[in-house]
Amino acid sequence: MIGAVEELAQSNRTISLVDEIFEINFFANVNIIKAILPVMRERKNGHIIVITGISKLLPVSDTLWY
């Protein structure tokens, strides 16, 4: 994430970088959950644990969109 934030601060393609970062950090989790959820429902068992970063807890102006 740090590399992406550094690139974002110096880039003219801000929107496409934000899209790429969200595709990895958000939609990857959504797609994995959507794929495994039917199996978990069928088995009536399972846990989903999503581990995220703490970057939003840091007051860095270039990450306000995150």
Fold and architecture overview:
The model has no long low-confidence stretch (mean pLDDT 75). This protein is mostly helical and 66 residues long. 58% of the residues lie in helices and 0% in strands. Helix 1 runs antiparallel to helix 2 (14-43). The protein has two helices and no strands. The longest helix has 30 residues, at 14-43.
Secondary-structure-derived class: mainly alpha
Rounded to the nearest angstrom, the distance between the terminal CA atoms is: 10 Å
The helix tally amounts to: 2
Poorly predicted spans: none
Proportion in helices: 55-70%
Our estimate of the beta-strand percent is under 5%
What is the CA-atom radius of gyration, in angstroms?
16 Å
The largest sheet, given as strand count, sense and whether it forms a barrel, is: none
Order of helices and strands: HH
- The counted number of beta strands is 0
Based on CA inertia axes, which overall geometry fits?
elongated
Number of domains: 1
User: Mean pLDDT, rounded to whole units?
Assistant: 75
How would the blueprint of this fold be written?
Blueprint lengths: L1 H8 L4 H30 L23
Helix pairs in contact: 1-2
Summarize it.
Helices cover 58% and strands 0% of the residues.
